[in-house]
Design a protein that fits this description.
Number of strands: 0
Number of domains: 2
CATH class of the largest domain: Mainly Alpha
Radius of gyration: 17 Å
Structural class: mainly alpha
Largest sheet: none
CATH topology of the largest domain: Hypothetical protein af1432
Order of helices and strands: HHHHHHHHHH
Number of helices: 10
CATH architecture of the largest domain: Orthogonal Bundle
Distance between the termini: 39 Å
Helix content: 55-70%
Length: 211
């Protein structure tokens, strides 16, 4: 286990058995992208880009750790409800958080099903919404990787989806890329927008230019 992953998991207040189950899930065969490396990367970016900001204050820092840790806890490439199942798994852990924290984490996991379509829940505070946007933006930061890393991530995702015929894979990939390219803003949190938006736009444009 790398240092970033260990640090993050130390903040997730779930019983030992639940933590071991999570680690086993993240290490499942076939997780070439959606595994422990992805989770660790998001936590590293949270620590680096969120320094001195709201997102690293408590209880938000702990809640962010929980949301990142569990957002891909269930990952079955044949299903379309992985986020809902991941949220359900989180709710079953018996986490030692307030009811508000448990609910916020579950809602944030659910929101990763469609990052840019997520809206505040009725009655949600500005802070709670801002921190949820932060987690959603973190999950999209791989769009703004250097070109070689972006290509490697695409290859890893293709390996995860090896059961799909090439034509089906390409159709879905291009639909995703085109949908993202049409968005007026990919990152709604200013610090992540400044750090990743331009590179993400360049990656999308490059990929679409050769289609």
């Amino acid at each position: 286990m790398d240092a970033a992953l260990g640090e993050m998991l130390s903040l997730v207040p779930v019983p030992r058995a639940a933590r071991e189950e999570l680690c086993a899930r993240l290490a499942e065969p076939g997780r070439f992208y959606h595994g422990s490396g992805h989770v660790s990367l998001l936590w590293e970016r949270h620590r680096r880009h969120g320094a001195g900001l709201l997102f690293q204050r408590e209880p938000w820092n702990t809640w962010v750790a929980c949301a990142i840790a569990y957002h891909d806890a269930v990952y079955d490439v044949t299903r379309t409800d992985n986020e809902a199942l991941s949220a359900e798994l989180w709710l079953r852990t018996g986490a030692d958080l307030t009811p508000q924290g448990i609910s916020w984490v579950a809602g944030t996991i659910l929101a990763t099903a469609c990052h840019l379509a997520a809206l505040p829940e009725p009655g949600m505070s500005e802070e709670a919404w801002a921190v949820r946007l932060w987690v959603l933006d973190l999950d999209l930061t791989p769009l703004g990787e250097p070109p070689d890393v972006f290509v490697a991530n695409t290859a890893a995702l293709r390996r995860e989806q090896a059961h799909l015929p090439h034509e089906v894979w390409e159709r879905g990939r291009l639909a995703f890329l085109r949908g993202m390219a049409l968005q007026p803003r990919l990152f709604r949190t200013p610090v992540l927008h400044d750090s990743f938006e331009a590179a993400a736009r360049a990656n999308l444009a490059r990929e679409l230019s050769v289609c």
